[in-house]
Structure to design on (465 residues):
């Protein structure tokens, strides 16, 4: 019996190795996410997954699974009332896998099973977690899982303090840890019911500050938090970490002040709240659009300026190597630094006495303009497909989907099936990254100029401006 088990185990390892060898890292990441989404879709379609005991349609199950794995949070049915406990556990498992990345989860599985991680798998893992160095990649993944588990446990206990008095001990604990995972992974799913998210707790300081801390920690990126933890030993922070911390601080503080001022007298949002509640709500609304998705005030009741501010925050998103989406804080910072260098007529883009390489500037430009192109194109499609829904709500929904935010103006359930399909692909594109998708679709290898001889085409100017 043991021999048969070992033979089957060896055969599975050979099949996995064969799969890895025949595909590029980006292809494996995309196909891996797609496989997890399809598996989640199948599980959510089962009658046991719904509270009514009836099966769920393929599109609704696919939309929910995609939103979960892509840690988005957009939903077509209410998570707290439509899904059974089994369905909710499937969703939170998909969120956890999506937040950490399936290759990270596979690595942990291999470690526990005693299997050696090959060089090929380490390269794929490096691409998956967006780390610049291959050295210490397995140790880095262990840190990711350990820190995630620790933070989610602390967050779960703090959330439970809020939910136990209202729902009882067992359900309060369940709600606490479920929402801790969802919030830290920047997913935005909730079990409160009636599509309310955290709006009943807008003035609850424990919930608001716990959620804000989880969102920010999840959005900083594992590389940044790792550097901060080891700062006393290293005595320095990298340029990347400095940019992330500065951008995060600037975005949160500036947005919170603007939202507080714009919504202060709005009778539908901050107006009826106490001063403490106004501060809590403004702070939360400045943090959650950067890919968290949960909310303490109804997004449809926001003033137009704040709705626009939220769109900008959603587009920016979190930081690289985090559970958050968007074009990332470092991309926006690089674009502004490049603009500053061009306006000042300087040759190099510099900050903190360091020069950014040309490749970084090119990747930042590509990420930014691909994101703009996708958001504009998808928005146009939805505006044409959904003429009865206000244009600003549709644009808001598209940016939320692409940046894997999950904030909504309550239009997703009302969308046509075709529009839901469009958002499914938009969420998937936003999660795996435009550059990854382009890498997979472009199967033809670029010519290696170093091997075939150095040459460059003739140069010619074009008129600009």
């Amino acid at each position: 019996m043991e021999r048969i088990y070992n033979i089957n185990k060896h055969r599975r390892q050979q099949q996995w190795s064969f799969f890895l060898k025949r595909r590029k890292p980006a292809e494996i990441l995309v196909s891996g996410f797609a496989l997890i989404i399809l598996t989640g879709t199948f599980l959510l379609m089962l009658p046991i997954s719904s509270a009514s005991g009836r099966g769920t349609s393929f599109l609704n199950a696919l939309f929910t699974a995609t939103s979960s794995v892509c840690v988005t949070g957009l939903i077509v049915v209410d998570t707290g009332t439509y899904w059974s406990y089994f369905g909710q556990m499937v969703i939170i498992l998909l969120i956890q896998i999506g937040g950490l990345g399936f290759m990270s989860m596979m690595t942990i599985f291999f470690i526990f099973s005693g299997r050696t991680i090959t060089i090929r798998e380490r390269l794929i893992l490096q691409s998956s977690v967006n780390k610049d160095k291959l050295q210490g990649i397995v140790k880095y993944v262990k840190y990711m899982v350990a820190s995630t588990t620790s933070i989610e446990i602390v967050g779960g206990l703090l959330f439970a303090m809020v939910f136990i008095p209202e729902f009882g001990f067992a359900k309060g604990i369940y709600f606490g840890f479920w929402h801790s995972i969802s919030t830290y992974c920047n997913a935005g799913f909730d079990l409160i019911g009636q599509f309310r998210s955290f709006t009943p707790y807008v003035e609850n300081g424990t919930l608001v500050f716990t959620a804000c801390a989880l969102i920010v920690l999840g959005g900083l990126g594992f590389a940044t938090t790792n550097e901060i933890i080891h700062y006393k030993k290293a005595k320095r922070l990298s340029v990347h970490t400095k940019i992330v911390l500065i951008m995060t601080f600037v975005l949160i503080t500036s947005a919170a002040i603007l939202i507080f001022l714009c919504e202060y007298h709005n009778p539908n949002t901050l107006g009826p709240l106490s001063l403490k509640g106004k501060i809590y709500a403004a702070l939360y609304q400045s943090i959650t659009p950067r890919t968290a998705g949960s909310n303490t005030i109804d997004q449809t009741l926001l003033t137009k300026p704040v709705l626009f501010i939220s769109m900008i925050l959603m587009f920016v998103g979190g930081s690289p190597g985090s559970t958050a989406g968007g074009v990332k804080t470092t991309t926006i910072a690089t674009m502004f630094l490049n603009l500053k260098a061009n306006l000042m007529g300087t040759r190099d883009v510099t900050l903190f006495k360091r020069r950014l390489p040309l490749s970084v500037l090119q990747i930042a430009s590509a990420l930014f303009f691909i994101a703009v192109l996708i958001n504009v194109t998808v928005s146009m499609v939805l505006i044409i497909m959904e003429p009865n829904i206000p244009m600003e709500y549709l644009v808001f929904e598209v940016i939320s989907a692409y940046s894997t935010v999950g904030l909504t103006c309550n239009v997703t359930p009302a969308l046509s099936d075709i529009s839901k399909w469009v958002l499914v692909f938009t969420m998937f594109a936003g999660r795996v990254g435009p550059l990854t998708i382009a890498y997979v679709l472009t199967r033809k290898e670029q010519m290696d100029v170093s091997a075939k001889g150095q040459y460059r085409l003739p140069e010619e100017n074009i008129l600009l401006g």
About this structure: Residues 21-132+140-440 form one domain.
